[in-house]
Design goal:
CATH topology: Four Helix Bundle (Hemerythrin (Met), subunit A)
Number of domains: 1
CATH architecture: Up-down Bundle
Helix content: over 70%
Largest sheet: none
Length: about 130
C-alpha cells in the first residue's frame, strides 16, 4: 500500500468528519461550478455531454436545496428561505432553457459562485 493510500485510509474518514454541512455544500457547489465553467469555452453555443452532465448534477443539487428549504423544520429565517427558494426555482427553469439552447450556462455558474461567497463570507476563509 502506498503512503498516499495509507493516509487516505487512515485519515480520510476523520477529515470528512471535520467538515460542517456548510463546508460540504460549498465543496459540492465548487465542484459542479468548476465543471460548468470548464465546459463553457470549448464550444460556445453548443451543449457538450460533459456540460449536460454538470447541468444535471447542478439541477439535482438545487432541487435538493429547494426540498430542504420547503421543509417547515428548516432553521433559516422565513425571508431567507423564500429568497433562496426563488433562486432554486429560477435555477431549475434556467437549466431547462440552457439544455434546449435558449439560454447561457454561465448564468448558472455565476449564481453558484454568489452562493459560495455567502457560504464563505470572510473572503474564502473558513469561519
Amino acid at each position: 500500500m502506498s503512503v498516499a493510500a495509507y493516509a487516505r485510509t487512515s485519515y480520510g474518514d476523520h477529515a470528512r468528519a471535520l467538515k460542517t454541512p456548510r463546508d460540504i455544500e460549498y465543496d459540492v457547489l465548487a465542484r459542479i461550478t468548476g465543471r460548468i465553467q470548464s465546459e463553457l469555452p470549448h464550444q460556445p453555443g453548443k451543449i457538450t455531454l460533459a456540460l449536460t452532465m454538470a447541468l444535471n448534477d447542478n439541477r439535482r443539487l438545487w432541487a435538493t436545496f429547494a426540498t430542504d428549504l420547503a421543509n417547515p423544520e428548516n432553521g433559516f429565517p422565513v425571508d431567507l428561505r423564500a429568497r433562496l427558494f426563488s433562486l432554486a426555482e429560477f435555477t431549475l427553469k434556467h437549466t431547462t432553457q440552457v439544455l434546449t439552447g435558449r439560454a447561457r450556462a454561465d448564468v448558472l455558474a455565476e449564481i453558484n459562485t454568489a452562493v459560495m461567497r455567502g457560504l464563505r463570507p470572510t473572503g474564502g476563509a473558513r469561519p
